[in-house]
Structure formats: C-alpha cells, structure tokens
Amino acid sequence: MNGQLRKDVVPGIQVRIVQKQDQRTGKLTIGTVKDILTNSPSHPHGIKVRLTDGTVGRVKEIISG
Predict the structure, then answer these.
(1) Per-residue pLDDT reduced to its tens digit, 21-48
(2) What DSSP character marks residue 52?
(3) I need a labelling partner for 19 at 20 to 30 A (CA). Which of 27, 30, 36, 65 fits?
C-alpha cells in the first residue's frame, strides 16, 4: 500500500519513507510513525510524517498496520 492517503497513515504503523536528502537516490528508511505532518487528505508524493526516532520524510510504502 502506498502512503498517499492520510486516512491510511496512523501513528504506530511501520512504514518506508524517503527523506528530503534521499529523494534523488530513492533510498528508503524504515520506521514507526510518531506524528503525521501533512494536513491535506492526500498528497501525490506521499504523506509527510515524523518517525519515532525523529526522522522526517514522505511515506512511500506502508509495511504493517
């Protein structure tokens, strides 16, 4: 499942995100969602989140709910 819809992204789920500096390479970071930073119901590049370790990026894939 991709992370373009805000309703699919909830705190506590495992996701793969792309950080701003990794957008060119497409390197993904795995983590658990702590905060949802995007206010709109959807975003074409993925919902922006903060992981429990403080990393910020856009959700590219939802691993588990």
Answers:
(1) 999 999 999 999 999 999 999 999 999 9
(2) T
(3) 65
65, pLDDT greater than 80: no
- Between the alpha carbon of residue 44 and those of residues 5, 12, 59, the distances in Å are 9, 22, 10
How far, in Å, are 19, 20, 47, 53 from residue 43 at the CA level? Answer: 15, 15, 6, 23
For residue 60, give the 3-state DSSP assignment: strand
Residue 43, CB-side half-sphere exposure with 13 Å CA sphere: 18
Q: Give me the domains of the chain, ranges plus CATH numbers.
A: 6-64 (2.30.30)
